[in-house]
Amino acid sequence: xxxxxxxxxxxxxxxxxxxxxxxxxxxxxxxxxxxxxxxxxxxxxxxxxxxxxxxxxxxxxxxxxxxxxxxxxxxxxxxxxxxxxxxxxxxxxxxxxxxxxxxxxxxxxxxxxxxxxxxxxxxxxxxxxxxxxxxxxxxxxxxxxxxxxxxxxxxxxxxxxxxxxx
Length: 166
Hints:
Layout: E1 5-14, H1 18-25, H2 31-34, E2 38-43, E3 54-61, E4 64-76, E5 80-85, E6 90-101, E7 104-115, H3 123-160
């Protein structure tokens, strides 16, 4: 089968502290909450996430169930988190960057991939589909983390109220 390269970069702004965003994104067990099509993702061995850690992800890719093993190959707290696939339908490298920008955290994602297994779909269709999914993933991440901020603020405000004040 002919291989082809998928390559794109996208980003979003999340109104949360950089440390919280980095910790959430770099914890594989959180992936199913904000990555479309991910059913489960977990480290293969217990311990801290960092360079060389392996994790397995099970999900759906273009209507096919896919299981992949990844290795963390970039890890700089609050700045960079990246991993490469060791198995699965794509040979991929995904890198997340984290920067402070105007009181928010800018999250960038860069994806490079080669299809290695027989996914029967046109190259351009797969690339467009994947880019759209990554954009939706970042939107879900933003919504999820910013909703937590709103809830925390609301809880703090309600704890300060007395005598039925609302």
